[in-house]
């Protein structure tokens, strides 16, 4: 098995987004605060994707897995661009809140998953990781979001929903793709105009062992 051999891969759909379940893959996951992407924006982007899917199906009389991956990747990139605009409450701009997320991400490192890089942005989070043992990406994300939601609400003196229910994920395909993902995650704070932002980290020795 090669280092980017994802083993057994299954496509699973949760809400309206497809997700990849892989036994050995390296994931790039993104999730965000509930108000970071207003509902009308989400609906417009999904309608655009659905229109393109219909057009491809009519033109080619088929819609392949590759077509689905391409359209969903384009959707994710548009989402990420909007997230970087800093819409919503941006509660993670509060260092206490960002520290809770950072601590949760690192807590089970080397036990449930291996981390390669992560960044906590004012209204969203990126992590590059691979799952260990019986852990799955869905369970890992559920654990992070459940714990941090409760703790951040305590800090802010509020209750209710904090995170958007779903998340984006994709698998690293090869060395080049892996390094491009890592660069995106680590440079995201600077790209979004954040200076002296401490809530981003990479693991150089672990990355060197991969590439």
Write up this protein.
The structure is a single chain. With 211 residues, this protein is of the alpha+beta class. The protein has one domain: Alpha-Beta Plaits. Helix content is 46%, strand content 20%. The chain contains 6 helices and 7 strands, in the order E-E-E-H-H-H-E-E-H-E-H-E-H. It has a 5-stranded antiparallel β-sheet, sandwiched between helices. A two-stranded antiparallel ribbon has the order 1-2. Strand 1 and strand 2 form a beta hairpin. Helix 1 runs antiparallel to helix 2 and helix 3 packs antiparallel against helix 4. About 5% of the residues have low confidence.
Q: Which overall shape is indicated by the principal axes computed on the Cα atoms?
A: globular
The overall pLDDT, averaged over residues, is 85
Helix content: 40-55%
CATH topology: Alpha-Beta Plaits
**What is the succession of H and E elements?**
EEEHHHEEHEHEH
CATH architecture: 2-Layer Sandwich
What's the number of domains?
1
Number of strands: 7
Detail the poorly predicted runs: 8-17
- The end-to-end span amounts to 15 Å
The number of helical segments is 6
Strand order of the largest sheet: 6-3-5-4-7
Largest pleated sheet = 5 strands, antiparallel
Strand percentage lies at 15-25%
**Cα Rg:** 17 Å
Structural class, judged by helices and strands?
alpha+beta
The CATH class name reads: Alpha Beta
CATH superfamily: Transposase IS200-like
What's the quick description here?
With 211 residues, the chain is of the alpha+beta class.
């Amino acid at each position: 098995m090669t280092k980017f051999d994802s083993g057994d891969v299954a496509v699973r759909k949760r809400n309206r987004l497809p997700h990849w379940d892989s036994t050995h893959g390296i994931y790039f996951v993104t999730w965000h605060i509930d108000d970071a992407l207003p509902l009308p924006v989400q609906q417009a982007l999904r309608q655009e994707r659905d229109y393109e899917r219909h057009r491809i199906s009519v033109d080619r009389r088929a819609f392949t897995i590759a077509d689905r991956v391409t359209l969903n990747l384009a959707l994710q990139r548009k989402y990420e661009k909007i997230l970087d605009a800093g819409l919503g409450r941006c509660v993670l701009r509060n260092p206490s809140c960002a520290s809770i997320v950072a601590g949760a991400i690192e807590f089970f490192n080397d036990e449930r998953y291996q981390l390669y890089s992560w960044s906590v942005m004012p209204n969203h989070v990126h992590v590059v990781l691979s799952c260990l043992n019986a852990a799955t990406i869905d369970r890992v994300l559920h654990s992070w979001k459940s714990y941090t939601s409760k703790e951040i609400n305590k800090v802010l003196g509020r209750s209710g929903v904090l995170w958007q229910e779903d998340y984006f994920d994709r698998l690293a395909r090869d060395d080049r793709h892996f390094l491009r993902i890592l660069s995106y995650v680590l440079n995201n704070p600077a790209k979004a105009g954040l200076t002296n932002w401490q809530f981003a980290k990479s693991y150089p020795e672990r990355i060197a062992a991969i590439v």
